[in-house]
Amino acid sequence: MKTGRGAEWAKLFRIVTLVFSISIFTYWFIKKSAIGIVKDSVALQVINKLPQTIDFYVITLDDSDKNGTFDTKHIGKVRPEYYRTEYLKMDKSDEYWIVGYLGKKNLVYFSQHSVPNKNIDQIIEVQNYINQSFKLSNNAKKQVEAYNYENTKLGIWVSLDFLLLFLNLALLVRRKK
Question: What is the Cα 148 distance to its own chain's centre?
């Protein structure tokens, strides 16, 4: 369809598709980049008192169903004597786990915490390398691996979608000689 009425419809379809795709990606990017302050959430402050940078994850347990659904969040790498704040939506949960990694695979910290009062913010100081429960920490390790796998898969799809979007945009605006 290089000429005629079909070419005009094809170009219009590409323009509509590009505008729709760009708006969807803009919405998704703003939603992912927004600060995670949630109404009626519990603020969790993790303070690293250890001499190395630790990569922390928080896992909240959903108590409303019997399957034990987990919600995993990456807090980030926390340097020594620094802290990171995360806001947890604890409306369906009374418990969270903190998992700390030194490097990619070396789990050095695991602790289990309950939230008896959801009106009081939580402050956790990580002062030693502990593993409170090997059984739960193995479960947490699987959750973190699944979380990282899903993020890697999502990153690949987003990169390929952006490449396709860029190619369509470049082919649409190029000038024929």
Answer: 9
DSSP tag of 128:
S
What tokens does 156 get?
A: 């690949």
Q: What is the DSSP letter of 88?
A: E
Residue with tokens 């995360």: 86
Sorting pLDDT into bands at 50, 70 and 90, what band is 92?
confident
Mean pLDDT confidence for 33-62 = 85
**Cα first-last separation, the chain:** 18
Cα 74 to Cα 90: distance, rounded to the nearest angstrom? 16
Contact 109, 38 (CB under 8 A): no
- List all residues 6 or more positions away from 140 whose beta carbon is below 8 Å from its beta carbon: 57, 59, 97, 99, 110
DSSP secondary structure letter of residue 176: P
Tell me which residue of 48, 57, 84, 63 sits closest to 141, measured CA to CA: 57
| Tokens (6 digits) for 135 | 């059984």
pTM for the predicted model, two decimal places: 0.81
For residues 111 and 134, give the distance between their C-alpha atoms in angstroms, rounded to a whole number: 10
Structure tokens at 139: 């479960």
Contact call for residues 56 and 28 (beta carbons, < 8 A):
no
